[in-house]
User: Fold this.
Amino acid sequence: MHMLLYVVVPPTVEPQEMEGYVERQLAPFDENRFWDEIGEDDPNPGKWDWWVIGGRWDGVIQGDDRNQHSGGDWYRYALSEEARQLGNNVRSADSLKRVMHRDPKRFVPFAILTPDAEWNESRTWNGHDFVERETWTEDALELIAKHSDPDHWVVAVDYHS
Assistant:
């Protein structure tokens, strides 16, 4: 299943370092890690087995679902270099906060990864099954608002789990 993740980037990260920052933030959540590396009590259980900046969600964070312009071949487009461009898939946290409040159905993602490496998502594990968080829209808005000073950025990531 492919899902939209927002990775919040702090002001200490230079623009040319954003892609590397996203990669480092996502690394602890890689499902492909060997069990002998992580152990049973890993505080960061695997969340993804593949990811790319933008991808199926190319441009969505800016309000332009660029996959709609793919001529009907959204899958090929989602895997193209064009769909992986950081410029189409980054927005200031302050600006994102405003549009999320106006149109949550369009802009609230499945998950948010904060600068303190906290993975927040729209569902929780109850020990037997995943349960949708009824407060996810409000929680997501609050997480982005918490990081909405003008110097924080948010990168949209397509991830598979």
